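Good morning C.,

I know you're traveling, so I'll keep this short. The sequence:
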Amino acid sequence: MINIKTDSRKVVPGDTFVALRGIRTDGHDYIKDAIKNGAKKIICEEGKYSVSTLVVPDTRVYLNQLLKETYNEELKKIKIIGVTGTNGKTTVTHLLRESLNKVGIKCASIGTLGFYIGNHLVEDLENSTPDLCDLYGYIARAIDSKCKCLVMEVSSHSLMNGRVETIAFDHAIFTNLSQDHLDFHVTMQNYVMAKQELFKKIKPSGLAIVNSDDPVAPNFLLPTNHNITYGYNDAIFKIIDDKLGQTDTKFTFSYQEDVYEVHTKLVGRYNIYNIMPVLIFLLCIGIEPIKMLKVAYNLTPPEGRFEVIPYKNNQIIVDYAHTPDAIIKVIETAKLFVKGNIYVVFGCTGERDRLKRPIMAKLVSEQATRFIITEDDLYYEDFEQIKNDMLLGVTKNNYEVIMDRKEAIIKGISYLEENDALLILGKGHEDMLKIREKRLPFNDKEIVLSHLQNDLNYTKK
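The tokens, ready to paste straight into the viewer:
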């Protein structure tokens, strides 16, 4: 099997390099770098080089056909499940991989948390949905490792940029949709239509599992698919009631004439929405209900998702929430068991949707006792611009600005007195800050634990 690359930096001796023209970059500018790294063949739209060269009218069209021909037979050996939505993609992907492995179906996953085979992290990923050539490579590695299924996050960017162009999905899951990425999509309708593309890629025998409580759900219930819905309202799998606790959740759902009582260690109503498509999938592939319910109880949340660190009689919660919808759900969940004050440390990502910044700040200002505006991944945008955008939404004088994220976290911890909570939002599991060309080691949880270890009054639980 030939090894195909579109990124010259990833080329190793013997690879075929395909020069793609993009919006900001042109692969033809990096052909010499690819050859220097060992490319034995170049596929391009112009020029002749020192190694075997094939000139084609459109390298992207050629690449798609080449990938199909190269991997077509291999892809028949594995079931591919795509998960899309604004929030919940990472958690659903993680839970589904974990569930399938628990019931004896070896499963790999691709997403924000990295590339997993079984429960082993093989490689961190730069994007939740990798470049098309890399994606095929990961699928091939999963097949070589005897995986029967691969579940992957499918972002709207990847659907629009051709990163899953030639992939036919066996099944797809839609979690929810709320404001995000309008710097790229411009309008919410464009955003919806981008997500919808995944459901046009489902094989005729596949399932489309859709959260019918979301207002845009009808856009994902295509007549060509076998549609299965879930939710509290009118749905095939209907959630009847729930009991939300501090350390666990109990809920009941019905399907046809059967009623299922679920007990899970995941907390918050939003996690009911995250676990439901997983349970539905298990039932649809023939897993016995008793086994399914046992799996549900033993599922663990992914790292950096509502991760609670006890501190005296307080709670410090690290979460990836970085959209208005995610932030309000995390705060609402915390309020279920926090008797005291709720404090928040968060920032907004640079060079991303500016419209959501004041919305997020407004929500936090109205819901938190006090909050600190700090840095997130700035990329090449100035912190002052991000801060000023956020301040447009602030409705109370209950905030302060501390640019240094470590200093902001430590200050947030100092607020805690009795039965309070500090929410540190936006970064979750991530282990670096991206500022201009720099990648600075940084992990919210590690900062918290390091600080608490120096606190003589801290007892680790």
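Safe travels,
E.
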